[in-house]
Amino acid sequence: MAQPRVIIIGGGLAGLSAAMKLAELGVQVGVMSLLKVKRSHSVCAQGGINSVNNLTRQYGDNESKHFDDTVYGGDFLAHQPPVKEMTEWAPRIIDLMDRLGVTFNRTPEGFRDQRRFGGTLFPRTAFAGATTGQQLLYALDEQVRRWEVGGRIVKYEEWDFLGPILDDAGRCRGCVGQDLITMEVRAFPADAVIIASGGLGAIFGRSTNSVTCNGSAVARAYTAGAKYGNPEFIQVHPTAIPGADKLRLMSESARGEGGRVWVPRKPQDSRAPGAIPEAERYYFLEERYPKYGNLVPRDIATREIFKVCVEEGLSVEKNRQCVYLDVTHLPREQLDRKLAGILEIYEKFQGADPRDVAMKIFPAVHYTMGGLWCDFERNLEGGLVIGSPRNQQTNIPGLYAIGECEYQFHGANRLGANSLVACIFSGLTVAPGIVSYLEATAGGSALSMGSALFDRATARHQAAFKELVARPADGPNPYTLHQDLGKVMTEAATVVRHNAELDKAYAKVLDLEAQASRAAIADASAWANQNVVFTRALADMFPLAKAILRGARARDECRGAHYKPQFATSEITATDPAERRKQAEAWVDAFEENNRRWLKSTVAACGVGGEPTLTYEEVDVSLIPPRPRLYGVVGGQAIEEVYKERQLAQPPAGALATSP
Amino acid sequence: MREPLTPLHRLQIESFDVRVLRQDGPGKPSYWERFRVRYESDMNVISVLQKIAENAQTVDGRKVAPVAWECSCLEEVCGACTMVINGRVRQACSALVDRLLAERPGCIELRPMTKFPVQRDLWVDRARLFANLREVQAWVPVDSYLDLGSGERQSQEQQQLAYQYSKCMSCGCCLEACPQYMKIELTRQPGETEAEFHQREEELYKRAFIGAHAIAQVELFNSNPIGRMNAFERLEALTHEGGIQACGNAQNCVKVCPKEIPLTTAIGRGGRAATIHTLKKLFDR
């Protein structure tokens, strides 16, 4: 077996698609993962994968509409060329996954079936039962196994990535990993390293993410000098099932089928939900949003549930925040036919049948829109130059980032069923770029370099590990420190953000970080020591936590998932037409002024002591001019009128500008 | 079929005990340790193990190393946290404490799977499972990853059938329950390189029973419109030593599968296909 020239960190959808494509292009690949790649977090994606398709085309859909929905949904914070390219590839990606044997649901005629998802008017979402992510991952896992047999890919499963190895010129020459069983620390010389390690839900304690989504690989690249884009953008899903170990997702379709969200009017009413009469129930979404009711947009639902529990003290339980999501009034037959899959998850983990008893739900951290900063090369049409070594490359030459752990595709908010396509797309397209990079690598291959650089890196990480194992068992408890960090981050930096709270949270995080640096090690074993691996990952959460808090503190506006009530725009309340017009003009003035100030990506660099320094980067909005995101805004029509008039008075901003 | 749901009741207890069969590493002796965990409602075995990690102290007050175990998704779709709980192989995430204590009051018993080598405590090495998948070529052998259009059209019926098998998360429950699937545990010999050791391991895996898990994947890929082009190779693997003929028809596999995969149907169909394959080879000679 030849030595790998490219090492991929993470074996989810992004990492495995990159691995198989690189193998096809003749490159020796190593895949390093904390666990068997077949068990990666991609398996948790339920809903589906988006692309324009033959059916939606006939309703007037096309690639530029998928592009527009994604950019609009992300509140214009995403660079447009990568998004444009992704939406153009999406139909071909789904065709490829179909050929690889993904068991997509079928129509009676045998075509792939599609459903409609949030943020679009078209049924673009192909799905495989209620486990689309799992099915896509398995197809890629199978291809990677095929290349393993063929000798092109080698897997390092149950290995922890400890950091990239940079040469004196700052170029990435490989990485250091640790075998989680034997605890052997080893350097892997390589000409390129791809980080494909997914999200960082664990920084928020419990989330909808898998326990392996702890951000450690990203943190280790960040502290080694890689920049981090848009750290403050974290998606919180409105409905998750609170659990002692995890917050499991409860799909939006429960509300789509008529589920109602409520709390008892009497705080912590001890009666069973079914015994509380209608008059004593507070259907707060229906009362506050009579038009949309329980189907208000995701961010609004999240904020309202949060408000009713945290600010108004109406949580169903005293010691735990939650509201009722009630489907018990719906006919059983309808529930069984349309919602069986998701109701079974509730049954299985809560041990209660939601057909009989109202479910208890609360918002949960779900997706990391921000991530390692990476580059792209734009072509003349506004898409990407496929094969450019710049695509997906971080600011460290030879270090790449793909999938959820990078920042390019979703802007300020991700649309449902777009994550799977972004992961596979970035994995497939990074491959030809890396081939170009390998061809152009100056100074010879890392594999032929002397061992000095690699020996030094191994010795450094080996020493750090030894020091950690030898640490006394009487320091602060790392597991409770993790819970404390999760609590601070969840309270200050999720649904609603206030500057004063963010400042306080920062101080608390610094204190926790100091404690974590002395955290007790309860296991002195040099064999399969999960205690040490956990404590090390905990320490690495702090630089990212600080970047999230600083990014959120600095951004004085509301955009996508980032909401600061202090900077929320007012609504159009006047009834008199002239006054309405005036209010709308003022609204659009404020919108334009805000975009001049804040339509920028946050770019965090890790400074001394893990303190982030923030700079701002212009967003490439050359293809679709930014416009107000008005879904659910009172007086939206008046605002739209003013906005459109102003647009008409201006020259077009880009050659490919599309209308919504 | 799914078990009927009995309502859960919050138990009126302060705490409960957890007995864990521990082992410090391969080749080391195993031993029991007992922990006391404070009771809360809505606990599962994962949260119990998290509590033990947080305060790893036995009932007699000895500080010990936290229990090692494997987990990831906590939603019963990744297969990582498989172990033997109160004598039954299953995922720790979907094993609810209230139910376990209702079955057997006072104490929960956790053991590692017995068919795979223990790496440490409840953490086992299931590499053999994936070797079995390599052996049966459980993949669709496409020409390339270039754009060559979509796959073939498929009936809803065919999709449903394939989906059942493709939900398999390689957890190994079926193998733990199988009387024919025996544990293989090797140790590296002095002077043997890592590569030589793995080579020896692979040889043994090939000769030993392949198990229901891989047989069901043969059924999946041999019914796929492109996958069936390699049906011959897969049936070769099924008719080798350790192939489908080694199945003793105990039918335990289908009873313990958390995803209710029709494993015995796959074994029945695989058996017939293997017989025809063998006869054909005989007459075509």
Any overview of this molecule?
The complex is a heterodimer of chains A (660) and B (285). Chain A has helices at 13-24, 54-57, 63-73, 80-99, 132-149, 216-223, 253-256, 284-288, 298-311, 332-350, 419-440, 452-469, 478-492, 499-516, 530-554, 577-598, 636-648; strands spanning 6-9, 29-33, 49-50, 114-115, 125-126, 153-157, 159-166, 172-179, 185-189, 192-195, 228-229, 234-241, 248-249, 260-264, 281-282, 323-326, 359-368, 371-372, 399-401, 600-606, 612-618. With 660 residues, chain A is of the alpha+beta class. In chain A, helix 1 packs parallel to helix 11 and helix 4 crosses helix 11. The longest helix of chain A has 25 residues, at 530-554. The radius of gyration of chain A is 25 Å and the shape is globular. The N and C termini of chain A lie far apart (52 Å). Chain B has ten helices and seven strands. At the A-B interface, helix 1, helix 4, helix 5, helix 10 and helix 15 of A face helix 1, helix 3 and helix 4 of B.
Distance between the termini of chain A: 52 Å
Strand-pairing-aware structural class of chain B: alpha+beta
How large is the share of residues in beta strands of chain A?
5-15%
**Portion of residues in helices of chain B?**
25-40%
Describe the main β-sheet of chain B briefly.
5 strands, mixed
Largest interface: chains, residues each? A-B, 75 and 75 residues
Counting DSSP H or I runs of 4 or more residues, the number of helices of chain B is 10
State the strand order across the main sheet of chain A. Answer: 13-12-17-16-14-15
Topology:
The complex is a heterodimer of chains A (660) and B (285).
Chain A: E1 6-9, H1 13-24, E2 29-33, E3 49-50, H2 54-57, H3 63-73, H4 80-99, E4 114-115, E5 125-126, H5 132-149, E6 153-157, E7 159-166, E8 172-179, E9 185-189, E10 192-195, H6 216-223, E11 228-229, E12 234-241, E13 248-249, H7 253-256, E14 260-264, E15 281-282, H8 284-288, H9 298-311, E16 323-326, H10 332-350, E17 359-368, E18 371-372, E19 399-401, H11 419-440, H12 452-469, H13 478-492, H14 499-516, H15 530-554, H16 577-598, E20 600-606, E21 612-618, H17 636-648
Parallel strand pairs in A: 1-2, 1-10, 2-6, 10-19
Antiparallel strand pairs in A: 3-5, 4-5, 7-8, 8-9, 11-18, 11-20, 12-13, 12-17, 14-15, 14-16, 16-17, 20-21
Chain B: E1 15-23, E2 30-38, H1 45-54, E3 82-85, E4 88-91, H2 97-103, E5 107-111, E6 118-120, E7 123-124, H3 127-135, H4 156-166, H5 173-176, H6 194-207, H7 211-222, H8 231-239, H9 252-256, H10 263-284
Parallel strand pairs in B: 1-5
Antiparallel strand pairs in B: 1-2, 3-4, 3-5, 6-7
